Amino acid sequence: MTDTPPQIPEDVAAMSFEQALAELEKIVGRLEQGEVPLEESIAIYERGEALKNHCETLLKRAELRVEKIQARADGTAASTEAFDPS
After folding, report:
1. Which parts form a coiled-coil structure per UniProt (predicted)?
2. CB–CB of 28/48 below 8 Å?
């Protein structure tokens, strides 16, 4: 079993974090209401997975950028604490 990353549709990959999160929240809301037909539920769940994966990728990139910013000019770490956005 290979551990390959899931494919993200092009339209999702082009979204900003905020756009993807907003659409994901709408999908979650629709699924929580329970009024979506089964086939549509499966389709929007799959899209939600793609949106979630895209958001996670963007967050990881942002985290790496913050870590890079925290590094000193000489290459030593200025801080080893994890980034806390709150």
Report:
1. none
2. yes
Q: Which region, left, alpha or beta, applies to residue 33 given φ > 0 means left and ψ of -120 to 50 means alpha?
A: alpha
Residue range(s) defining the domain that contains residue 19? 10-70
Amino acid code (one letter) for 39: E
In a domain, 25, yes or no: yes
pTM: 0.73
- What total number of domains does the chain contain? 1
Nearest to 17 by CA among 61, 70, 65: 61
C-alpha radius of gyration, the chain, whole number: 17
Maximum alpha-carbon separation in the chain: 58
